[in-house]
Design brief:
This protein is mostly helical. It folds into two domains: 1-176, no CATH class; 179-345. The mean pLDDT is 75. It is 85% helix and 0% strand.
């Protein structure tokens, strides 16, 4: 057996062992690496400020933990407490209100009345409350596992920033990957992921703050519900609805019809129309101009579907993994096309 074949077989075996060894951490490593690529500009800003790669990586990691993971941990903890303290009488009041509305439906909705009535007849507030309590316990355990996973993400995020350049150069030399192609892949991923990360974060902060101000005005925990709405807004198309519609039902169950109407109109007009339709595209345009060169262009439709597919396949972190895989695939196709053209000519 040739020495090269023996080395290749040994490398494959050891690679499989490495895969098995680090299998519990692969998702954290991938997410941390992609987040490091997305926030490369923040790292460079801290580096120019401190002139130290260690302190730049440390400040970047602290910033990510404070701005992103701390609100998420706060949300998961308080949301599980909120569900555990849910009063079953509220669900009963919602059922009573729905039956009252059914009795006043116009004739054109008479066909829907039977279906809604059949659903309500099967509704058991006590059993539903028990399900919610079970979900609250699951959310609590998920919060603990998520926060422990967050620690590993932050550790790998620091490593990716501090040693990222050295690791990238090592793998590039080991794989004998051409300089031009590797630079193109890194630039494309960095550009698109930066736009996705910063635009998503800006949208969540903006819309969450607007919703938090509104519910805070009504006497609720504006910080908690603002964070909840911000994370709900990450879900494309229906994100905001899964927050403000149950909130309106809750207010109606308490007899606060004016509050319910206010929340519905405020969310639709101020957040969905003004913020999401007019302000959000302007913010994304500014981010594109900041992080993308004029000759490069991010196809918003491709990124949009990549985020949806990523969320459906990988869960929460799919909003980063989906666009990353899509951009990597398209970039490799472009490199292959260029190589074929060079061979022809």
């Amino acid at each position: 057996m040739k020495k090269e074949y023996f080395t290749l077989i040994l490398l494959l075996l050891v690679s499989y062992g490495i895969y098995q060894l680090y299998q519990p951490f692969w998702m954290s490593i991938i997410v941390a690496s992609l987040l490091a690529i997305s926030t490369h500009h923040i790292q460079m800003g801290f580096f120019h400020l401190t002139r130290s790669r260690f302190w730049a990586s440390t400040l970047s990691t602290l910033s990510l933990g404070i701005l992103f993971f701390a609100p998420l941990g706060y949300f998961l903890f308080h949301f599980s407490l909120l569900l555990q303290n849910l009063d079953p009488a509220v669900l009963t009041n919602i059922e009573i209100k729905l039956r009252e509305w059914l009795s006043h439906l116009p004739p054109s909705f008479s066909q829907m009345e039977g279906k809604i009535e059949a659903s309500l007849s099967q509704f058991d507030a006590g059993a539903f409350t028990q399900h919610i309590l079970d979900y609250a316990g699951q959310i609590g355990s998920f919060a603990m596992s998520f926060l422990s996973g967050t620690v590993f993400i932050l550790i790998f995020y620091f490593v990716a920033h501090y040693y990222g350049k050295d690791i990238f150069e090592f793998f590039k030399r080991s794989a004998h990957f051409p300089q031009q192609e590797s630079t193109l892949i890194l630039f494309e991923m960095r550009s698109v992921l930066s736009v996705v990360f910063y635009s998503t974060l800006a949208t969540a902060v903006l819309e969450g703050a607007l919703f938090g101000v509104a519910v805070g005005y009504l006497g609720y925990n504006g910080l908690l519900f603002g964070i909840m709405y911000g994370f709900a807004s990450l879900v494309p198309v229906i994100g905001g609805v899964i927050m403000w519609f149950p909130f309106c039902l809750f207010e109606l169950a308490l007899g606060n019809t004016e509050n319910a109407i206010f929340i519905a109109l405020y969310t639709i007009i101020v957040i969905s129309v003004i913020a999401d339709t007019f302000i959000k595209p302007f913010v994304i345009k500014l981010i594109n101009q900041k992080f993308i060169k004029p000759e490069e262009k991010v196809n918003e439709l491709i990124v949009f579907f990549a985020i949806i597919a990523g969320l459906a396949t990988f869960g929460f972190w799919g909003m980063i993994i989906g666009p990353a895989l899509t951009v990597l695939f398209l970039t490799l196709l472009r490199i292959t096309e260029t190589q074929n053209d060079e061979e022809i000519h």
